[in-house]
UniProtKB/TrEMBL annotation:
GO molecular function, one term: DNA binding
Listed name of the protein: XRE family transcriptional regulator
Gene3D superfamilies assigned: lambda repressor-like DNA-binding domains (1.10.260.40)
Matches recorded under Pfam families: DUF5753, HTH_31
Start and end residues of each HTH cro/C1-type domain: 18-73
InterPro entries: Cro/C1-type_HTH, DUF5753, Lambda_DNA-bd_dom_sf
Lineage: Bacteria, Bacillati, Actinomycetota, Actinomycetes, Kitasatosporales
């Protein structure tokens, strides 16, 4: 990947991690520049995710920071290598905005995705017919096909990634407003049952009488990113895009909300029964 194509979600994650290591040890950018024998702008660009870091420089830095956890070092090295990875959605050009590219990167790099959706069926669990009807309400006709193809391509994660797990909580009202067409609604409900049978997919329905926090929460996703140790981040979705939360205190808040929602929701087996009864 060319430097002009950065920052990307991966390069920003790497830069944030290297900045964290530096600040925890009380070093200034100037100190790192002297250690790497380079200018301060280069160090700043690396920490801002605007450029990658050479393997040799990364080795020097990790040694300088006295990092001796072999698993952690391997994880950082892997991330540094993967910032140059060309993903399948890279060829989609202007069709996919930067926010969606960031989301796809987080999704592809995760071993566990926990998603709360109060308004629609989660993207990885949508039928093509259902997703096309959603796109029709927000996009011009020429974009619907490519957008549907992109969403369908994402489903390969569930099949291809043996270490990928999807857990979802769906508000019960969503099931009752899938479509005015009984055929479309039935197809989508049957697909939910099919996907729920997979060992790496969990579906829970949040009933109307669920005892949940009084606060109103927008759709959010918790990503557990692969690595040693695994890193959790939260993604908040809104009308104009999405916001990534990486601070531990912020992520812990949404992790607690997730735990409260899963406790209040129907169990996976009870959720399956609800969907069957609805069919």
């Amino acid at each position: 990947m060319e430097q002009r194509d950065m920052p990307t979600m991966r390069s920003k994650r790497l830069g944030n991690e290297l900045r964290r290591l530096r600040l925890e040890r009380g070093y200034k950018v100037q100190d790192i520049a002297e250690k790497l024998q380079c200018g301060q702008p280069k160090v700043s660009q690396i920490e801002n995710g605007k450029r990658g870091i050479r393997p040799l420089d990364l080795t020097v830095l990790l040694d300088f920071y006295e990092i001796d956890d072999a698993a952690y070092v391997a994880s950082v090295r892997r991330l540094a290598k993967e910032i140059h990875k060309v993903d399948w959605w890279s060829s989609q050009g202007p069709l996919l905005h930067d926010t969606l590219r960031d989301y796809l990167t987080l999704e592809a790099d995760s071993e566990l995705v926990r998603e709360y959706v109060p308004t629609v069926i989660p993207g990885l669990l949508q039928t093509e017919t259902y997703m096309r009807r959603i796109f029709e309400t927000r996009h011009p006709a020429e974009k619907i096909g490519p957008l549907a193809e992109t969403r369908l391509k994402r489903k390969e994660l569930i099949d291809a990634q043996l270490d990928f797990t999807l857990r979802t909580i769906i508000d019960v009202a969503v099931l009752h407003r899938i479509s005015r067409s009984p055929a479309v609604a039935r197809e989508q409900l049957e697909y939910l049952l099919e996907m729920g049978d997979r060992p790496n997919v969990s579906i829970q329905i949040l009933p109307l009488d669920a005892a949940i926090p009084a606060e109103q929460y927008a759709p959010f996703t918790l990503f557990s990113l692969r690595g040693e140790p695994s890193i959790d981040v939260a993604w908040l979705e809104h009308v104009t895009g999405g916001t990534l939360l990486e601070q531990r205190t912020d992520v812990q808040i949404y992790t607690r909300v997730w735990d409260e929602f899963t406790a209040a929701a129907l169990s996976p087996s009870a959720s399956e029964k609800y969907i069957r009864d609805l069919l």
